[in-house]
Recover the amino acids of this structure.
């Protein structure tokens, strides 16, 4: 039986229940791939596919995403925006913010955001990844369709990962029911996505920075094959680009991986 029962989810969504059409499946290749196929067949905005198992889960930057049955919440949400994709540069940050606010509302402590959109938990042991977000956009004359894929660890997965990992059950006591978690996230996303549509990321920026793991700290940007860039992280701009103060001035970073650099490092300059 699938882990999420849409009948149990509905009352938890309250007055927002009509905004979502949730389908829970035992297994699919990837909830985002499955939702994309359904979107191509005309599925409405608010369609959600949640799966217990993914045989080909996809992460950012071409990575695979492993999720364990019972120990992960793995779903994708279809949303449609008016206008071109270029107006949605802050979308992935906005989704991260929606997730952070929902998790904090459930009593998860130490929620932080890592640009562009990882959700971390900060504890005495340091930072650990709790959730990842994968956004895929497609535009046409009518506007832009977003497939918002979210993978959350309920329990910390075992295995080798690029950074330490954790789960909601480790960061929150008592552990919330997964229907409560999913409903809280969907409700939070409705508010955030509507605000993004009407007012733009500009209005969400300071709230995003409140959760930012490394606001004002030295970070290292690892780009695609480029030499690492080191600088002080000033936050994000109105388009969601990361602002990095380097020896060569303020750089706007649009893509890359951020990793924490020990405080006190000299400001770096990107090699010519
Ligand atoms: C990351 O690399 O951090 C993003 C991971 C996103 C994984 C989610 S799980 C649900 C959805 N389906 C996928 O295949 N990927 C996303």
């Amino acid at each position: 039986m699938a882990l999420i029962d849409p009948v149990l989810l509905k009352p938890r969504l309250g007055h927002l229940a009509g905004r979502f059409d949730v389908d829970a499946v035992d297994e699919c290749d990837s909830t985002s791939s499955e939702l994309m196929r359904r979107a191509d067949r005309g599925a409405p905005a608010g369609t959600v596919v949640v799966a217990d198992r993914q045989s080909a889960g996809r992460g950012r930057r071409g990575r695979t995403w492993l999720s364990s049955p019972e120990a992960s919440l793995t779903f994708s949400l279809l949303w449609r925006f008016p206008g071109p994709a270029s107006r949605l540069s802050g979308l992935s940050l906005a989704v991260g913010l929606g997730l952070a606010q929902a998790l904090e509302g459930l009593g998860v402590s130490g929620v932080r955001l890592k640009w562009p959109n990882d959700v971390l938990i900060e504890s005495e042991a340091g930072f650990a990844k709790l959730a990842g977000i994968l956004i895929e956009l497609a535009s046409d004359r009518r506007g832009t369709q977003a497939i918002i894929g979210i993978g959350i660890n309920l329990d910390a997965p075992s295995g080798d990962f690029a950074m330490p990992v954790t789960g909601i059950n480790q960061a929150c006591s008592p552990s919330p029911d997964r229907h409560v978690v999913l409903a809280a996230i969907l409700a939070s996303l409705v508010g955030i996505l509507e605000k993004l549509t009407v007012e733009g990321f500009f209005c969400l920026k300071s709230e995003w920075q409140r959760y930012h793991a490394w606001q004002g700290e030295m970070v290292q940007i690892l780009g695609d094959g480029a030499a690492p860039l080191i600088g002080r992280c000033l936050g994000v701009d109105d388009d969601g680009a990361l602002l990095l103060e380097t020896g060569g001035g303020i750089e706007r970073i649009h893509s890359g991986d951020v990793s924490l650099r020990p405080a006190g490092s000299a400001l770096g300059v990107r090699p010519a």
